[in-house]
Amino acid sequence: VNDPMCWPTRVSLASLNGGEELTGRRREHAATCLRCQAEAVKYRRLRRELAGLGGVVAPAPRGLVAAVLQAIERDPAQAESQVRRAGVAAAGAAAVVAAGTVVVLRRLRGAA
Ligand SMILES: [Zn+2]
């Protein structure tokens, strides 16, 4: 039931830039495979939604600053080490998000 062309076709679908189409055997496969056609629709919709997000900014959670300041007042030494640990984790997460955003933006550039 699982066509061996499904996987390479889906990998191509995921990496197409906006406006690009499948070519060669993958294009032929997608023309006859309903599952890959459904996948292509999903990617088109996802690209459209991401393009519509534009400059959306996610605000910091309410009370975050107050909670951090309180922790520092209660036990400055412990708070400092917690903040340092959280900062390292946050920097790592931010780097991953930034890298992902760059990839998404590059892929969307053709569609925008
Ligand atoms: Zn398929």
What features would you describe in this structure?
With 112 residues, this protein is an all-alpha fold. The protein has 5 helices and no strands. It has helices at 6-15, 24-32, 34-53, 64-74, 76-109. The longest helix has 34 residues, at 76-109. The radius of gyration is 22 Å and the shape is elongated. The model has no long low-confidence stretch (mean pLDDT 81). The protein binds zinc ion. Zinc ion (ZN) is lined by residues 3, 5-6, 9, 29, 33, 35-36.
Considering the chains and any ligands shown, give keywords for the structure.
5 helices, binds zinc ion, single chain, 112 residues, mainly alpha
In short:
The chain is mainly α and 112 residues long.
Q: Give the tally of β-strands.
A: 0
Structural class: mainly alpha
Q: Report the total helices.
A: 5
Largest sheet report: none
Task: Give the helix/strand layout.
Elements: H1 6-15, H2 24-32, H3 34-53, H4 64-74, H5 76-109
Bound molecules: zinc ion.
Zinc ion (ZN) binds next to helix 1 and helix 3.
